[in-house]
Design a protein that fits this description.
single chain; TIM Barrel; alpha/beta; 2 domains; 12 helices; about 350 residues; Enolase-like, domain 1
């Protein structure tokens, strides 16, 4: 009764775009996962996911139909091995992620347990969460969203800004005791990044994320870390296990941020957790979608002893993700351990 009979995609191209994967077995049970959403092309915000759609449809679905949905690890390794010549990063793990997360969700639902229990059980009662803001472009808008997030129950927020006047003014206008992080997605060169890092230290930011371009320049990241009074975060653009080993061996980051929809799902995530422990860094799963990607990141985070933060997307009022997943309920600024079935939280 666990034979995979159908794999279908739900591709929402309008903002905020999303790419969901549904896996159905012969008894009608369904699990839902999520692929990375791609980068916008032209004026179509969700068009960047089309190559991932094609990868799932042309490469993955034909190889999993008729297979046993319980063999999650076997399917992951077979797919990765068979298509290895296409590379171990980019489209392939982004596509596999949706299938992998759906299979974990399906298994948890079938057994009537949360996915975190399948990963060994929760090692935390609760994990602090931060509101991850989109780029907003003005101090007024950023502070407005921080006030909304604070009222909801967040005690921390991450900015995606690179204008120093906004970064500085927000630090001065935040609520008392509120923690700030900054992600610039590789906006600066090395010299600029070091200057910004020193400013962030004076402004009281907790971390500086992806400070340099290119974002996978491990040597440059280490140079920023050596000169920075604030800790460095990164890792959302690493893919394979060897990528993460090289990244961590450079000793440039304190906060490791793998993106579950880029690394290929939860199956490789547990191996990356072990690397984080080995290198004695903090695990903070990266995520910017309210959907299976967030839910999987939460279950994963609760299964690792080195998790310290969870990233929760925070959109301006009137914007909702098509998955229907809502911002998790917070207690004292933290997400509580999942108790629902599959990837559900409760």
């Amino acid at each position: 009764m666990s034979t995979i009979t159908d794999v279908s995609l739900r591709h929402y191209e309008d903002f905020p775009h999303q790419l969901l994967v549904d896996v159905t077995t012969e008894d009608g049970a369904t699990g839902t996962g999520e692929c990375w959403w791609g980068m916008p092309v032209g004026e179509r915000p969700g068009s960047g996911a089309r190559p991932i759609v094609q990868t799932v449809e042309a490469m993955l679905i034909p190889r999993v139909l008729g297979r046993d949905a319980r063999q999650i690890a076997r399917l992951w390794f077979e797919l990765s091995d068979h298509f290895y010549r296409y590379g171990d990063g980019g489209m392939l793990p982004m596509a596999i992620a949706g299938l992998d997360l759906a299979l974990w969700d399906l298994r948890g639902k079938t057994l009537g347990v949360p996915v975190v229990d399948l990963l060994g059980g929760s090692v935390h009662e609760a994990i602090p969460a931060y509101a991850s803001l989109p780029p907003l472009g003005s101090t007024e808008r950023v502070l407005h969203e921080i006030e909304r997030a604070n009222a909801y129950g967040f005690r921390a927020a991450k900015l995606h800004e690179h204008a120093m006047d906004i970064i500085t003014e927000v630090a001065g206008g935040r609520p008392a005791g509120f923690t700030l992080m900054l992600d610039v997605n590789g906006h600066y060169d090395l010299t600029e990044a070091i200057d910004v890092a020193r400013a962030l230290g004076e402004l009281g930011y907790l971390w500086f994320e992806e400070p340099v371009r290119p974002m996978r320049d491990h040597r440059a990241i280490r140079k920023v870390a050596d000169a920075s009074p604030v800790r460095i975060a990164g890792g959302e653009n690493e893919f394979s296990l060897i990528d993460f080993e090289r990244f961590l061996a450079s000793s440039g980051v304190t906060y490791l941020q793998p993106e579950v929809t880029k690394i290929g799902g939860l199956t490789p995530a547990t191996r990356i957790s072990a690397l984080a422990e080995l290198h004695n860094v903090v695990l903070c799963p990266h995520n910017f979608r309210l959907g299976p990607s967030l839910l999987a990141s939460i279950h994963w985070g609760f299964s690792s002893p080195v998790t310290r933060w969870l990233e929760v997307p925070w959109l301006p009022e009137g914007n909702d993700f098509p998955s229907g997943v809502k911002v998790p309920v917070l207690k004292d600024g933290a997400v509580c351990a999942p108790t629902g079935h599959g990837l559900a939280l409760d």
